[in-house]
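Forwarding the complex inputs:
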Amino acid sequence: MNNGLLHLGSSTLASSDFLILAGLLFLLGAVGVLVRRNPIVILVCIELMLNAANLTLITFARQQGNLDGQIFALLTMVVAAAEAVIGLAVLVDIFGARELDDIDDLSELNG
Amino acid sequence: MAEVVFWVAALLALLGGVGVVVSRQPIRSVLSLVVVMLALAVLFLLLSAQFVFVVQIIVYAGAVMVLFLFVIALLGPIKESAQGRLRLQFTASVIVILIMGGFFWVMLNGVQFRAPQNPAPGVFGTVEQIGVALFTSYLYPFELTSVLLLVAAVGAIYLSRVDKGTPGE
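Prediction (whole assembly, two chains):
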């Protein structure tokens, strides 16, 4: 019994290769959300993290030979699209109306 | 052959991810994310998810990213002041990231990777199979996504309206 090999054609890529790549991409997205202060870049980094999650879903779907993971990934894409639409609309509303430098200026709720 | 495709796509995805985080201009971040998405689409095809591959390119790399570009063009440049207002933001971020990376490392060592029970047949992940699954077992979540998209569309139209007064005034 070989451990987690995916049998893609003649090659033997392990599913851990895909999972490590997804983990690294998720970490990169998390770094961006924490470090950057441009609201558009923060939204882009959230999309990056969602994409990394999709990669794990599809890897596990392939490993289990089961379509559920792919359906889950499709639903994630729908939710991500809705999130991007609402996030960008809020951004346009706030940053179009006021003179702000970056996201640190949105501190009205700071007690 | 598949290994070469995997390593090239993985390298492109990682380079694009670094580009997303370090680019000074938002438009470069968005274009780097397009690179990441195209590389991930290739990996989806490698994992025999044909339908998700097509949706990733058309909907994600196409429509969603064009939306981002529109907003950047609409807002013009947003400056990012070099001095953050939160003290220790960078240091705290590094600590959080190290902890998170440690968790990933431990989890990946703990996962029992096993071979697929049934080696995937040649028709795994086709449009036909996805369609059958979406309209039988997953009909309820699929219909719920339509409500979600409707709410998102109505919300976006409301938020971006210039005149916020009550209609009919």
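Chain A has a mean pLDDT of 84.
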